[in-house]
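In the current project phase, the collection of sequences with tokenised folds has grown. A sample record is quoted in full directly below:
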Amino acid sequence: MSRTSTLSRLQRLELLATRLKSDAPLVLRELANELGVSHRTLSRDIDILRERGLPIEASRGRGGGVRLHWRWSIGRIALSYREAVDLLVSLAVVEQMNSPILMANLTSIRRKLMASFSPSDQHKIRHFRSRILIGQTASIDVQSGYELPSPSCVEQLHTAFLMSKVAMLRYEDERGRQTARTVEPQFLLLNYPVWYALCWDRSREAVRTLRCDRMLSVSVVHEHFQPRPKDDFREALEGIAIVET
């Protein structure tokens, strides 16, 4: 078979991994024919996948065969881009909390997740992480009035933040007054357990710090905004000990 008609190694490894994860019995001779490679090349590909952590077992039946260990499960999850970003950000938050019970494998997990992204996506993810700030634990007074944010508001705010898009929202302040705002969610700040959005408020042409649990409704506008430097938010962050994720 000509080289031009043979799958590239990367494509072949991806297809081979997919076939193994399907749980269907695989005969080496048939698999080599399917991938357009020799038995030796297929064996090298299998060794590469083993080195990457797939527990591949060989059987000695007629024609030889391969399968994943019957107890194998890690690797079956297929995360979307946003899900993987969420997981990376969550790991970063936990890392900054310095909990000894949770810290054992977080660094290696984060590295493996980052390695699954393209270089350009890795750059974007590092940008997002730099805009998620971890402050102190919220005071007792703040926590006493805290309620879980609306899931729909969180989803819309999250989308606006990740996509750098303008958001329109209705907000209720500590006195119960409701206002309509058009904002650019530039940073997210966690004073555990309370999340804040550090926004450029277009309605007021000023920086505003908005509690996520006081957002009554959020909708994303199909208009992008440019990230502003952290110095623009210095006054809003004054007195808060920040650890960047």
Summary: The domain at 3-68 is CATH 1.10.10.10 (Arc Repressor Mutant, subunit A). The chain has three domains: 3-68, 81-130, 135-244.
